[in-house]
């Protein structure tokens, strides 16, 4: 029985063993083995590799060409989106770093000594690198104090050549490194060389537009003085004999702005009472309160108006006006009453930026016209309002700053302009027939309110923010100046991108661009809020910047300030 079972299993074992042996034996193609003998030449079987195999034949849902292209487009879109986001983050980070760079530098570096950070800590930096400032102002006599690019100083320093000089006005030509002034006799003099450039013209005030100086004299006329001919003005002089002393001759400067063809001389309109200039325009007020304008640089074929003349037919689409040819700003000088009749207005003050103009009338109405790229007209920034060629009243732009504005009469009492920024002083009073209630937000009717609008990228707005454009009026933070109290500005001095104000107590505060030290605060870091100008260092005195910053300069009533693009001066008049 047992033997029969073994004999029955034996064939299966042998078969299984033979299968395993067969699976391990090499496999041959018989055609390859016998092909040469049968056909007389070798035969090679074709074997497919992985590259020849059709891998898609077993895919049930093979993607169409359209689906492949759709997926590719989606991937490209996602790639573009991520690249755009990366670029946006990079630009935003760079802009933030640029705007915050003055604050970053101020923590580690005091400019003027080093722009590089040493390897040691910030405490060691201040201990080693803080500059010691030395004064040169003597106690005796009067001085012209300069600070900025021209004398390479970040604090007011005396100009030796101008010792004991009292001036009616002063102007700096940065490109020519000249400092011109009007002496007490009304002569135009070179302060640094003590040369008399123009004698006997009874000059009172100087303004610079482009490459031309405009000088207002005591007779109410504006003289045109080309900077290129500053050393040879004799060709503009005529000599007349005195009626009272016929044996004497006096010089008459014949290059003047002609007012006779536009002024109403029959009604006594014969003099210019006030004027200001922009980059290529001039606006003046006659003794009758009428406003007139002209270009200061004739068209060379490439000039374009930005509406700064306040005359619609001198818009950006029209021909640029002829230089020094006066035109009345009729839309500023006149208005309509409720019956539609034309009534005249009295213009009291004008101020010019590079390409925009502000004006105020005797009723306290504030007007703006010209370029509005940065909001310097206090109007919405848009393509349609980028250039406004006619005067518009903007008093309503200040209502948000005065609670109960509907019951208040908000008036402008002063205005000034830098290159692309406007500064106005407003005052509120109750309208007739209205009673202003008492509340926590009640406005002090005796207080003056100071506003800025326009370009603030260099800190010109004075509100603590570096901002490229500001169309809504923003309050200037004078409270940043010490000591804190009721601030009242007595005089404004505006450069293209920085401002210096003289307060009623004689203190000076400054803000804006400071790349050359033109703020006079001892360092070259721009300021976004009014900052006190430190006291003048007398001859032999020396102080560290940290110690000097604790002091405050105080000007006498007869001291003024002049500001150019990169240099400022304090002088006696």
From TrEMBL:
Q: Does the keyword Methyltransferase apply?
A: no
Tell me the InterPro entries matching this sequence. MitoProcess-Associated, RCC1/BLIP-II, Reg_chr_condens
What organism is this sequence from?
Answer: Candida glabrata
Residue stretches of each RCC repeat: 448-505, 506-558
The keyword Lipid biosynthesis appears for this protein: no
Which SUPFAM superfamilies does the record cross-reference, listed alphabetically?
RCC1/BLIP-II
**Family matches, as Pfam families:** RCC1 (PF00415), RCC1_2 (PF13540)
User: Which protein is depicted?
Assistant: Protein FMP25, mitochondrial
